[in-house]
Design a protein that fits this description.
The complex is a heterodimer of chains A (315) and B (467). Chain A has nine helices and six strands, in the order ααββαββαβααβααα. Chain A has 315 residues and is α+β, with helices and mostly antiparallel strands. Chain B has three domains: 226 residues, Multidrug efflux transporter AcrB transmembrane domain (Multidrug efflux transporter AcrB transmembrane fold, Up-down Bundle), CATH 1.20.1640.10; 66 residues, Alpha-Beta Plaits, CATH 3.30.70.3400; 117 residues, 2-Layer Sandwich (Gyrase A, domain 2). In chain B, the strands form six sheets. Chain B has a four-stranded antiparallel sheet. The model of chain B has no long low-confidence stretch (mean pLDDT 80). Chain B is elongated, with a radius of gyration of 32 Å. Classes of the chains: A alpha+beta (315), B alpha+beta (467).
Chain lengths: 315, 467
């Protein structure tokens, strides 16, 4: 009975693939089929241009807004509605706008579309140079974070045999979570026009931290049991450790979910996407540390990825 | 041992009460404010500071157009100082001007009212000239050509480096449209001051000693004629010379208070040592964030209440202790935000909420261990000690890995002006430290007090300890 838990790893891995694949396809679709050729819809943080958030005091129409922007020489502004219809909140994406033009555009919008509530409106402009540098730095940050975590686990488990296995399996589980969150974001980009911004990057980087944190707690127990139960088959030690930490994993996961769901339901539009990504990542992180990171270590020790051969290994 | 625990309990209660007072949004007496001596005196109000995204305001990222590869660190620092002085003159107390990387300056002005004015003030790189206005001075704002801008011609050359005398050289063709530059902004002491004169506003200025003789001569010759101040080839204002001036004077006109202040700033810090251009502008409406804050706070309270309820139902007495620790955690963190001070942004709030999750995690790790140790046959007292000792290695290792990620996030946010990322990282780092402190001090003290002298029968009490 105890053995089957890890033995059945092929089902856990298959479930992971089932969730990763749609996201991957969505990312692929975005790269091939969208004009920007990026895996996600990028916000102004990563794509040069200006983003106007316009709060009108009364009903506005897309055509009227478009007319104003065309008048100022923007050929194809991307205009979309934010929030509910009665909020009269609009977003307009254009090429980079000069500082003094912004106020003129706002004044004209106020006159010819509908009175603008400047206190609830915002404008952001990012130049091509900065946007590309931020994007590059984002990738560097993810890679740097992964490497640091990899070496940290290797070091923290240096007394356990084959410490490198733990750190590599933890990184694989982490990449699993990153892939799922990134893929879902691409999917939501297609479905709900969600854009990837600096906050999304924050969410991803936190996920990395939490995914690894979760994994380390289980590994820590394996490390402890390896010395306490010398001589038992590796798979049995791992299964035992997994069961012993299961309560904690589920409890903490539930606690996180309570906070996240509350934020998602009541937290307002500006952090909704961020929280949604975090929630997906946290669930995925809990799953991957129990059902990917741990069986993978066993699979490596037994040289049996799918758990189909009848093998046991000592450490 | 019992005594030590009681002392710890008193410390915890005192710290919590103090933190509650600091974190509450009430006006604090000046005596208490002055205790926070490390904070900037102008912004020392001991309140939670809200960032640009919550409070609204202006964020401007400036870059230099100088080719990279040159060593411009010192020059950038000077430019930053000048911009900071200009921005501070606007009267916003929470303005921040930071160097980013080697060639950028990030200016943040929370709650600034006149954005247009602020942008102009930041952007002015200019050359300030005093120009002979002739008999019909050009209106304010007109672009004009001056002898100095064309061929460094000055009526009163100040030094060998600044300007040469205007001669009747033949190389000037269209003299009708050309204004004669008398002086550059170099002759001014950098101490111009706006002043209120019975409802009108004026700007006082003074002249460097070396230039006072020339200034006296010029104003004597051109009395009752306009003297135009020209910045970057654009007329700022053309006051009439009312008398012979020597060491300084006063510019009067139909200024608003705002304009008088801006003019004084321009006179003082007219030019930057290096050309800067605006790269990124974020202009966030003043009430856009207020709603988000309100909703996030409500959401946070709901989420945390459910969480506390879960802890109590699942872990019983230890869960109740955990819920108390969480309240202490929240109070300590908020007080720290006020004391540091840390400016709260939307991602910052998210980081704070996530750090609560870390604190919960540490507590849960301990409680699970506690149950295991009890099941393993230890006494209540032994189980408390060994729960903390054995949970420590996983608490430590998992938090260190999150900390490492946070440090990378912080560095990333710092270098690239992604202040959202930076705010998030700072709050999470602080939260993790705080959660370690709260778990190992508050939770431990309360657990010891609850279980050290408990009767052995309590171990069988399912209501108090859960399953």
């Amino acid at each position: 009975m105890l053995f089957n838990l890890i033995r059945n790893r092929r089902y856990y891995f298959a479930l992971s693939l089932l969730f990763i694949l749609p996201g991957l396809l969505a990312m692929l679709y975005n790269v091939v089929a969208t004009p920007s050729h990026t895996p996600w819809k990028l916000s102004v943080d990563f794509r040069p241009g200006s983003r106007f958030v316009l709060k009108f005091n009364s009903e506005a129409s897309e055509d009227k807004i478009r007319a104003v922007f065309t008048q100022y020489g923007f050929n194809n502004p991307e205009i979309s509605r934010l929030g509910a219809a009665n909020e009269n909140l609009w977003q307009v994406r254009t090429d980079v706008t000069e500082g003094d033009k912004v106020q003129q555009i706002r004044d004209t919008l106020s006159k010819s579309v509908a009175p603008l509530d400047e206190k609830q409106s915002s404008v952001e402009s990012v130049s091509p140079k900065v946007a590309s540098e931020v994007t590059r730095a984002a990738f560097q940050a993810v890679i740097a974070a992964s490497l640091v975590v990899l070496f940290f686990i290797w070091w923290a488990f240096r007394k356990a045999p084959h410490a490198i296995r733990y750190s590599i399996c933890a990184i694989i589980a982490m990449l699993h979570d990153v892939l799922i969150a990134a893929g879902m974001m691409a999917l939501f980009g297609i479905l709900f026009n969600w854009e990837v911004d600096a906050l999304f990057l924050t969410a991803m980087l936190t996920l990395i931290g939490f995914s690894v944190q979760d994994t380390i707690v289980v590994y820590d127990r394996i490390r402890e049991n390896l010395t306490r139960r010398r001589g038992e088959p590796f798979e049995q030690i791992v299964t035992r450790s997994m069961l012993e930490t299961l309560h904690r994993s589920l409890a903490i996961s539930l606690c996180n979910i309570f906070v996240m769901v509350a934020l998602l339901l009541f937290g307002g539009a500006s952090i909704q996407q961020f929280v949604a990504v975090m929630l997906i990542g946290l669930v995925s992180g809990t799953y991957s540390s129990i059902f990917n990171a741990v069986p993978l270590v066993v699979a490596w020790a037994e040289r049996d990825f799918w758990g189909t051969k009848n093998k046991t290994a000592l450490v | 041992m019992r005594e030590r625990n009681l002392i710890s309990l008193v410390i915890i209660i005192a710290l919590s009460a103090l933190s509650l007072y600091i974190a509450l949004p009430v006006e604090k007496p000046d005596v208490i404010k002055s205790l926070a001596f490390w904070q900037d005196p102008r912004a020392r109000d001991l309140q939670i500071k809200q960032g640009l995204d919550l409070k609204g305001g202006l964020q401007v990222l400036l870059t230099t157009s100088i080719e990279s590869g040159q060593n411009i660190t010192g020059t950038m620092e000077t430019a930053r100082n000048i911009i900071e002085r200009r921005v501070n003159s606007l009267g916003t107390t929470e303005a921040s001007v930071q160097l980013q990387g080697s060639d950028r300056i990030l200016v943040e002005l929370p709650g600034v009212n006149d954005r247009q004015l602020a942008i102009e003030l930041i952007q002015k790189t200019g050359l300030l000239e005093f120009v002979d206005g002739g008999f019909s001075p050009p209106p304010d704002g007109t672009p004009i050509s001056t002898t100095y801008s064309l061929y460094r011609g000055l009526q009163y050359p100040q030094t060998a480096a600044v300007g040469k005398a205007i001669t009747d050289s033949g190389n000037i063709t269209n003299t009708a449209d050309l204004f004669q530059t008398a002086f550059t902004g170099e002759i001014l002491e950098n101490n111009a001051q706006p002043q209120a004169n019975t409802g009108q506003f004026a700007v006082n200025f003074s002249i460097k000693p070396a230039a006072q003789k020339s200034f006296e001569e010029y104003t004597g010759k051109h009395i009752r004629q306009p003297l135009c101040m020209v910045l970057d080839g654009r007329v700022l204002s053309c006051p009439i010379i009312q008398g012979v001036l020597n060491s300084g004077g006063q510019i009067t006109g139909r200024f608003t208070a705002e304009e008088a202040r801006a003019l004084a700033v321009t006179l003082n810090y007219g030019s930057l040592p290096i050309p800067m251009k605006i790269d990124t502008v974020r202009d966030i409406g003043a009430t856009l964030g207020a709603e988000s804050v309100r909703r996030s706070v409500i959401a946070g309270i709901i989420g945390l209440s459910v969480l506390a309820l879960f802890l109590i139902l699942y872990y019983r007495l230890p869960g109740l202790i955990g819920a108390f620790s969480l309240v202490a955690f929240a109070l300590f963190s908020l007080a720290l935000f006020v004391l540091m001070p840390i400016t709260l942004t939307l991602p910052g709030i998210a980081g704070f909420l996530l750090s609560i999750a870390t604190a919960v995690d540490a507590n849960i790790l301990v409680f699970e261990r506690f149950k295991e140790e009890l099941r393993g046959g230890r006494t209540l007292r032994g189980a408390v000690e060994s729960a903390f000792n054995r949970a420590w290695s996983s608490i430590r290792d998992s938090n260190v890995s999150t900390l490492l990620t946070c440090v990378i996030l912080f560095l990333f946010g710092n270098v690239f002006g992604a202040s959202a990322v930076k705010g998030f990282a700072i709050n999470l780092i602080m939260g993790i430290m705080m959660s370690l402190f709260v778990t190992m001090f508050v939770t431990r003290t309360l657990m010891r007090l609850a279980f050290y002298d408990a009767k052995p029968e309590m171990k069988e009490n399912k209501v108090l300890l859960g399953i």
